[in-house]
Amino acid sequence: MSADASVVQQPTEDHPPTVELGVTNEHDRSVTLVPDSSDEMLYYLPPMEGETVDVLLVPEEVSSRVIPDAPIDGCWRFDADSRSEVGSEVIQLRPSQITHELGPGERYAIRHEVYHVIRSGPCYPDGEYTTGKTLLFTENPGEKAVAIQEEGPGFDLQYTLTAEADGSIAIDVDGPDPA
């Protein structure tokens, strides 16, 4: 298995920054990927933690009352007064668990918009923001996740988003590392 992450769009006045996260099956047989919790694979990730603020990746097709249509005070941040308000709204958006079968050489990817979690403070202070995700896999859908070759029954991915002072972002993924 391999993983990738890229910036699809830098922030503009019309659109928040957008990233794409993907995984590719590099084996010679099909595998079924299963998320580590009750959500679709790569759909929901924990907040990306920074030194002073956090950012959140929200699937591109999701709409919510806290997701703004335009920048707020020049920043793509949630229209909420507290982190708990954002959290409770985003949790309501989580889908039921969905698995994905990937044939040899197939790739699965999902795009996320990047939002600053709260209204206070500078917009995306420059620095690094990190989060992780564990994916499990099996060769037999409906059965417990099992080891594929030496990789184990799953792998950990560590995402790092870097924000620059000019407002641009970059994203990278470290892994997969056996879980």
SSE arrangement:
Blueprint: E1 2-9, E2 18-24, E3 31-35, E4 48-49, E5 54-59, H1 83-91, E6 100-102, E7 107-116, E8 127-138, E9 154-163, E10 169-178
Antiparallel strand pairs: 1-2, 2-7, 3-6, 3-8, 4-5, 5-7, 8-9, 9-10
Outline the structure in words.
The protein has 179 residues and is mainly β. It has one domain (2-178). It is 5% helix and 41% strand. The protein contains 1 helix and 10 strands. It has one helix at 83-91; strands at 2-9, 18-24, 31-35, 48-49, 54-59, 100-102, 107-116, 127-138, 154-163, 169-178. It has a 5-stranded antiparallel β-sheet with strand order 1-2-7-5-4, with no helix packed on it. The longest helix is centred in the middle third of the chain and has 9 residues, at 83-91. It is elongated. Residues 145-150 have low confidence and may be disordered.
Work out the helix count: 1
Number of domains: 1
Largest sheet: 5 strands, antiparallel
Q: N-to-C terminal Cα separation, in Å? A: 13 Å
Helix and strand run? EEEEEHEEEEE
Radius of gyration: 17 Å
Q: How would the global form be characterised? A: elongated
Percent of residues in helices comes to: under 10%
Strands in their spatial order, largest beta sheet: 1-2-7-5-4
Residue-averaged pLDDT, rounded?
Answer: 79
Ranges with pLDDT <50 over ≥5 residues? Answer: 145-150
| Residue share in β-strands | 35-45%
Q: Please report the total strand number as a whole number.
A: 10
Q: Structural class of the secondary structure composition?
A: mainly beta
